[in-house]
Amino acid sequence: MPASAEEAVCAPVAKVPLERHLRQLSLDLLGRPPTWEEYQAAQKKGSVDVEDIRAMMNKDEFYARIRNYHRALLRANLSASVNDNGNSRLSGSGAADSILGFANNSSAGLRGGFGAGCDSTIEQDSCLTATNPDAHAAPLREKVTTCRDTQGVPMPVSFDYDTSFYKCTALATATSNAVTTCADLAANATWKKYTYFCDRRGAANDSFLCLPDPGKSTTAALTVEVTDAQGRIIAFEHPNIPSKPALTDLKRCTLDLELSGNVKGNYAPRRGCIQREGYVMSTKPPFWATGTTPASVKVCAIEAQDRAYNPWTMASCETARFASDRSCGCGDRMRRCEVNAITAQSVRAVHDMRVAAFNEEPLRIVESVVKRDEPYFNILTTRRSFVNGTLSEYYRQNQGVGVFSVTAPASAQAIPTVPYDENGAWAEYTRDAQHSGVLTTPAFLYRFPTQRARVNEFYEAFLCKTFAPPADASLPPPEDSCNRQNNLAVRCGCNYCHATIEPTGAHWGRYAERSSQFLNADQFPRFDPKCRDCALNGDTNCGGECSQYVMQAYDGDGANSLGMLKTYLYRTADEEQNIEAGPQLLVQRMMQTGDLERCTVKRIWNEFLGRPMTAEEQRMYLNSLSQDFAKSGHKLKSLIEHVVTTDAYRRID
Predict the structure, then answer these.
(1) pTM to 2 decimals?
(2) Residues 6+ apart with CB under 8 A from 87
(3) pLDDT (tens digit, 9 = 90+) per residue, 63-87?
(4) Under 8 Å CB-to-CB from 285, ≥6 apart: which residues?
(5) How many CB atoms lie within 10 A of CB 33?
(6) What is residue 225's three-state secondary structure?
(7) Can you tell me the distance from the alpha carbon of 78 to that of 356, in angstroms, rounded to the nearest whole number?
(8) Pick from 170, 197, 309, 451: most CB atoms within 10 A?
(9) Which residues contact 166 (CB under 8 A, 6 or more apart)?
(10) Cα distance between residue 603 and residue 618, in whole Å
């Protein structure tokens, strides 16, 4: 009767030849074949022993190998997890012929048209003396008659009609060559009624006649011409406004802005108008500046501002809303904004640099633990971390508010100062007390955006466990009230997994979902009476201050929890300890079970042998390797050494 495959494990072991053994170790530990000199040294010695293995594990190539292993284990790539809509990204380079400014979604709220830039030909503070292409349409300013309002917010200096509402035809064509310029039209008895709707457009300031687009049902219906005392059209209106049409009117464009909600300082462009502010020349270089960045940078006047809040409404400029508030701007040295790569200035895309740095951080933490031969599970608990130039500037200057939601891991004074352009220079520092190894880095929190996803990754990567209902799981009849439980930890069927997932996920309860924001108890208490009162009054938004709180009730527990931080909903008193203690408590508890050790042994085995342990190998090696791993103080190098010196590693398969 032939021997089984598992019985063969106990058979005499055929070792690989010396050269092949060296090659196998070099490829596994260093990621490359041996050099000719390394082959010669091994042949002269006649063996590859433990000292040779330890020497390999002190080389930079080994640490690169460890980094790659953990990159895969942690799936360290948050690029697809960050909602980067480009709203805070600037176009241009800042050179005289390439102005820096928004040309994206933000432009619609600031200037009235998607992708609309500012007027790069009129200096903002010279707007009253500069040649204005719209001078024929005077009066242009009635509300604010200066280049800026009394708080210094830049006002429009020129306008264009928006072709989303208007059809603009070359003036000579529209008038059959009766007039060819807006100035001529204003003086022509037949055509002067269209004076305000004559638009000088494009780089050449050619004259166009812009009228409500007859090809669109909403604008074609605006057939009533409203005129001023001189007979010039000032608006097109719908003939039956009481019928509440989708579009009631289109008014002539001027340099006056509307007030959204009739709130002073809450500026909005007039519908159908692209109202452009001018430019400024900034002598303060943006944070991404290099040696070839111009000494004086040309920037749109809105984006060049540096305010912490709207001076009229006091609304914050330190959130994503800054990109749609005319009074905010990009901040000091353009810190709130990003740019794409500027090849002529050797500037790399800011967003790409930030994503790369966030991805790199957990790998630096892992490498430091392994290189210092610390207990391996320090990668899950240490407060140590690292910043390069990109992250140092990001944290110390409070950058990126329009894209990332990341709480600075320490005070600005505690974060090392590394120049922005030194992306390869990483400096060590200590994060605040709530941090826990790689488990609280932006890379982990963004890559696994919910508490459930974070638990799932922790269990899979470090406990070698997955969540699945047992094979004999069953469900009660559909009418059973258990099926209507909102608490997944007790809902029939769901409870097989969620009875563990929900309380375990609470360890990340002080970290907001879909972001890397830490919900500090001083700012986000367990219960907020203001949020409760808003919820009871039906105001689930509550001024945007209660997004992290229970604001709607779907069951009795929810009704009793209005105004409570969401993460506390359905948690018992014992489980609430998980929220306050954070991921460090989870790691401490798992250390007591031995699951962390056994899983690490399995993963290292799989990594260096290229296959999982068989059942027989688990019987022979798992406990002994786990025990040796624990006795070594959980040193990863020691575990790897024990794995690559097993008979199984040297066997010819």
Answers:
(1) 0.91
(2) 102, 104, 105, 106, 320, 323, 324, 402
(3) 999 999 999 999 989 988 887 788 8
(4) 293, 295, 297, 333
(5) 12
(6) strand
(7) 9
(8) 197
(9) 197, 210, 211, 212, 213, 219, 250, 272
(10) 12
